[in-house]
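With this grant's support, we have settled on a layout for protein records. An illustrative entry appears below exactly as we store it:
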Amino acid sequence: MPVAIITGASKGLGRALAEALAGRGWDLVLDARGGRALAEAARAVAGYGARVEALPGDVTDAGHRAALVRAARGFGGVDLVVHNASALGAEPLRRLAELPLEGLRRALEVNTVAALGLVREALPWLRGSAEGTVITLSSDAAEEAYETWGGYGASKAALDQLAAVLAVEEPWLRVWAVDPGDMATDLYAAAVPEDDSPRPAPADVVPAFVRLLDERPASGRYSAPSLLEAR
Protein backbone atom coordinates (compact mmCIF):
# COMPACT_ATOMS: atom_id res chain seq x y z
CA MET A 1 0.00 0.00 0.00
CA PRO A 2 1.27 3.52 -0.72
CA VAL A 3 1.74 5.71 2.35
CA ALA A 4 0.86 9.40 2.71
CA ILE A 5 1.47 11.98 5.40
CA ILE A 6 -1.22 14.67 5.48
CA THR A 7 -0.97 17.66 7.79
CA GLY A 8 -3.99 19.63 8.90
CA ALA A 9 -6.09 16.50 8.41
CA SER A 10 -8.72 16.81 11.14
CA LYS A 11 -11.20 18.74 8.98
CA GLY A 12 -11.70 20.55 5.71
CA LEU A 13 -9.59 19.66 2.72
CA GLY A 14 -7.11 17.58 4.72
CA ARG A 15 -9.78 15.25 6.04
CA ALA A 16 -11.59 15.04 2.69
CA LEU A 17 -8.35 14.15 0.91
CA ALA A 18 -7.49 11.56 3.57
CA GLU A 19 -10.85 9.86 3.11
CA ALA A 20 -10.45 9.86 -0.67
CA LEU A 21 -6.96 8.32 -0.51
CA ALA A 22 -8.06 5.74 2.06
CA GLY A 23 -10.81 4.69 -0.32
CA ARG A 24 -8.17 4.17 -2.98
CA GLY A 25 -5.98 1.91 -0.86
CA TRP A 26 -3.56 4.33 0.78
CA ASP A 27 -2.28 4.02 4.34
CA LEU A 28 -2.18 7.34 6.12
CA VAL A 29 -0.38 9.29 8.81
CA LEU A 30 -2.53 12.25 9.85
CA ASP A 31 -1.61 15.39 11.75
CA ALA A 32 -3.57 18.24 13.33
CA ARG A 33 -3.34 20.31 16.47
CA GLY A 34 -6.76 19.32 17.83
CA GLY A 35 -6.57 15.80 19.22
CA ARG A 36 -10.31 15.17 19.52
CA ALA A 37 -11.15 16.27 15.96
CA LEU A 38 -8.15 14.36 14.62
CA ALA A 39 -9.23 11.17 16.39
CA GLU A 40 -12.71 11.51 14.88
CA ALA A 41 -11.21 12.01 11.41
CA ALA A 42 -8.93 9.00 11.88
CA ARG A 43 -11.90 6.78 12.77
CA ALA A 44 -13.72 7.90 9.62
CA VAL A 45 -10.65 7.28 7.46
CA ALA A 46 -10.03 3.86 9.00
CA GLY A 47 -13.57 2.92 8.02
CA TYR A 48 -12.34 2.63 4.43
CA GLY A 49 -9.99 -0.18 5.45
CA ALA A 50 -6.83 1.89 5.61
CA ARG A 51 -4.17 1.70 8.26
CA VAL A 52 -4.19 5.08 10.00
CA GLU A 53 -1.88 6.69 12.51
CA ALA A 54 -3.16 9.98 13.96
CA LEU A 55 -0.59 12.14 15.72
CA PRO A 56 -1.82 15.39 17.24
CA GLY A 57 0.78 18.10 17.41
CA ASP A 58 2.18 21.28 15.91
CA VAL A 59 3.98 21.01 12.57
CA THR A 60 6.35 23.79 13.64
CA ASP A 61 7.82 21.35 16.17
CA ALA A 62 10.73 19.38 14.69
CA GLY A 63 10.13 16.47 17.04
CA HIS A 64 6.53 16.19 15.88
CA ARG A 65 7.60 16.21 12.23
CA ALA A 66 10.08 13.44 12.94
CA ALA A 67 7.33 11.43 14.64
CA LEU A 68 5.12 11.76 11.56
CA VAL A 69 7.86 10.34 9.35
CA ARG A 70 8.62 7.54 11.82
CA ALA A 71 4.95 6.54 11.78
CA ALA A 72 4.95 6.46 7.98
CA ARG A 73 8.09 4.34 7.97
CA GLY A 74 6.26 1.94 10.24
CA PHE A 75 3.76 1.47 7.41
CA GLY A 76 6.58 0.86 4.93
CA GLY A 77 7.87 4.26 3.82
CA VAL A 78 6.76 7.65 2.54
CA ASP A 79 5.27 7.99 -0.95
CA LEU A 80 3.41 11.28 -0.53
CA VAL A 81 3.67 14.32 1.73
CA VAL A 82 0.76 16.77 1.69
CA HIS A 83 1.45 19.99 3.57
CA ASN A 84 -2.08 21.23 4.15
CA ALA A 85 -1.65 22.81 7.60
CA SER A 86 -2.04 26.57 7.37
CA ALA A 87 -2.08 29.64 9.62
CA LEU A 88 -3.57 32.99 8.68
CA GLY A 89 -1.35 35.17 10.84
CA ALA A 90 -4.33 37.09 12.17
CA GLU A 91 -8.01 36.24 12.58
CA PRO A 92 -9.75 38.03 11.02
CA LEU A 93 -7.22 39.18 8.45
CA ARG A 94 -5.77 42.67 8.79
CA ARG A 95 -4.05 45.26 6.66
CA LEU A 96 -0.26 45.13 6.77
CA ALA A 97 -0.13 48.33 8.80
CA GLU A 98 -2.06 46.51 11.55
CA LEU A 99 -0.72 42.96 11.16
CA PRO A 100 1.11 41.84 14.32
CA LEU A 101 4.62 40.77 13.40
CA GLU A 102 4.26 37.72 15.60
CA GLY A 103 1.28 36.76 13.45
CA LEU A 104 3.35 37.05 10.30
CA ARG A 105 6.06 34.93 11.90
CA ARG A 106 3.47 32.30 12.80
CA ALA A 107 2.14 32.20 9.24
CA LEU A 108 5.65 31.81 7.85
CA GLU A 109 6.55 29.13 10.40
CA VAL A 110 3.44 27.03 9.75
CA ASN A 111 2.92 27.60 6.05
CA THR A 112 6.52 27.73 4.84
CA VAL A 113 9.20 26.68 7.31
CA ALA A 114 7.32 23.65 8.63
CA ALA A 115 6.57 22.49 5.09
CA LEU A 116 10.26 22.44 4.21
CA GLY A 117 11.11 20.85 7.54
CA LEU A 118 8.69 17.98 6.98
CA VAL A 119 9.86 17.40 3.40
CA ARG A 120 13.49 17.34 4.51
CA GLU A 121 12.62 14.81 7.22
CA ALA A 122 10.84 12.59 4.69
CA LEU A 123 13.20 13.14 1.76
CA PRO A 124 15.28 9.94 2.03
CA TRP A 125 12.10 7.85 1.81
CA LEU A 126 10.49 10.02 -0.86
CA ARG A 127 13.61 9.52 -2.97
CA GLY A 128 13.32 5.79 -2.44
CA SER A 129 9.70 5.66 -3.59
CA ALA A 130 8.89 4.90 -7.21
CA GLU A 131 6.25 7.64 -7.05
CA GLY A 132 7.64 10.05 -4.47
CA THR A 133 5.41 13.13 -4.38
CA VAL A 134 5.11 16.38 -2.46
CA ILE A 135 1.94 18.49 -2.54
CA THR A 136 1.90 21.96 -1.01
CA LEU A 137 -1.28 23.98 -0.65
CA SER A 138 -1.03 27.32 -2.36
CA SER A 139 -3.52 30.17 -2.72
CA ASP A 140 -4.41 32.80 -5.27
CA ALA A 141 -3.28 35.23 -2.55
CA ALA A 142 0.26 34.04 -3.36
CA GLU A 143 -0.05 35.68 -6.79
CA GLU A 144 -2.63 38.44 -6.41
CA ALA A 145 -2.45 41.48 -4.12
CA TYR A 146 -5.64 41.27 -2.06
CA GLU A 147 -6.19 43.79 0.69
CA THR A 148 -5.68 42.24 4.18
CA TRP A 149 -4.24 39.01 2.70
CA GLY A 150 -0.63 40.27 2.66
CA GLY A 151 0.84 38.17 5.47
CA TYR A 152 -0.88 34.95 4.48
CA GLY A 153 -0.21 35.56 0.80
CA ALA A 154 3.47 36.24 1.44
CA SER A 155 3.84 32.94 3.27
CA LYS A 156 2.14 31.05 0.43
CA ALA A 157 4.23 32.85 -2.20
CA ALA A 158 7.36 31.77 -0.33
CA LEU A 159 6.00 28.22 -0.19
CA ASP A 160 5.37 28.26 -3.95
CA GLN A 161 8.99 29.24 -4.54
CA LEU A 162 10.26 26.50 -2.21
CA ALA A 163 8.17 23.96 -4.11
CA ALA A 164 9.48 25.20 -7.46
CA VAL A 165 13.11 24.99 -6.35
CA LEU A 166 12.57 21.59 -4.75
CA ALA A 167 11.26 20.32 -8.09
CA VAL A 168 14.45 21.47 -9.79
CA GLU A 169 16.71 20.04 -7.11
CA GLU A 170 14.83 16.72 -6.84
CA PRO A 171 13.86 15.99 -10.47
CA TRP A 172 12.82 12.39 -9.76
CA LEU A 173 10.06 13.59 -7.43
CA ARG A 174 6.76 15.14 -8.37
CA VAL A 175 6.31 18.45 -6.54
CA TRP A 176 2.95 20.15 -7.04
CA ALA A 177 1.89 23.45 -5.54
CA VAL A 178 -1.90 23.37 -5.76
CA ASP A 179 -4.21 26.33 -5.42
CA PRO A 180 -7.50 24.72 -4.32
CA GLY A 181 -9.55 27.81 -5.06
CA ASP A 182 -12.25 29.15 -2.75
CA MET A 183 -13.71 26.56 -0.39
CA ALA A 184 -16.15 26.54 2.49
CA THR A 185 -13.67 25.97 5.32
CA ASP A 186 -13.19 27.11 8.89
CA LEU A 187 -9.97 28.82 7.78
CA TYR A 188 -11.79 31.05 5.30
CA ALA A 189 -14.57 31.76 7.79
CA ALA A 190 -11.95 32.88 10.33
CA ALA A 191 -10.18 34.99 7.72
CA VAL A 192 -13.24 36.87 6.49
CA PRO A 193 -16.10 36.20 8.93
CA GLU A 194 -18.45 38.70 7.26
CA ASP A 195 -18.30 36.87 3.91
CA ASP A 196 -21.02 34.21 3.88
CA SER A 197 -21.28 33.74 0.11
CA PRO A 198 -21.54 30.10 -1.05
CA ARG A 199 -18.33 28.19 -1.78
CA PRO A 200 -17.53 24.61 -2.83
CA ALA A 201 -17.13 22.02 -0.11
CA PRO A 202 -13.59 20.61 0.25
CA ALA A 203 -14.80 17.18 -0.89
CA ASP A 204 -15.80 18.76 -4.20
CA VAL A 205 -12.21 19.92 -4.74
CA VAL A 206 -10.52 16.62 -3.87
CA PRO A 207 -10.99 15.10 -7.36
CA ALA A 208 -8.45 17.63 -8.66
CA PHE A 209 -5.82 16.17 -6.32
CA VAL A 210 -6.80 12.63 -7.26
CA ARG A 211 -6.39 13.55 -10.92
CA LEU A 212 -2.85 14.76 -10.27
CA LEU A 213 -1.98 11.52 -8.49
CA ASP A 214 -3.50 9.44 -11.28
CA GLU A 215 -1.98 11.32 -14.21
CA ARG A 216 1.28 12.46 -12.57
CA PRO A 217 1.95 15.53 -14.70
CA ALA A 218 5.21 17.45 -14.48
CA SER A 219 6.09 19.24 -11.27
CA GLY A 220 4.65 22.74 -11.12
CA ARG A 221 1.86 24.96 -9.85
CA TYR A 222 -1.69 23.84 -10.57
CA SER A 223 -5.15 25.28 -10.02
CA ALA A 224 -7.75 22.84 -8.71
CA PRO A 225 -10.64 24.63 -10.48
CA SER A 226 -8.77 24.37 -13.79
CA LEU A 227 -8.08 20.68 -13.21
CA LEU A 228 -11.74 20.08 -12.49
CA GLU A 229 -12.92 22.03 -15.53
CA ALA A 230 -10.64 19.99 -17.82
CA ARG A 231 -11.98 16.63 -16.66
Residues 101-128 form the longest helix (28 residues). The chain has a mean pLDDT of 94. The CA atoms of residues 82 and 135 lie 5 Å apart. The helical segments are 12-23, 35-46, 62-75, 101-128, 150-169, 186-191, 202-215, 224-229.
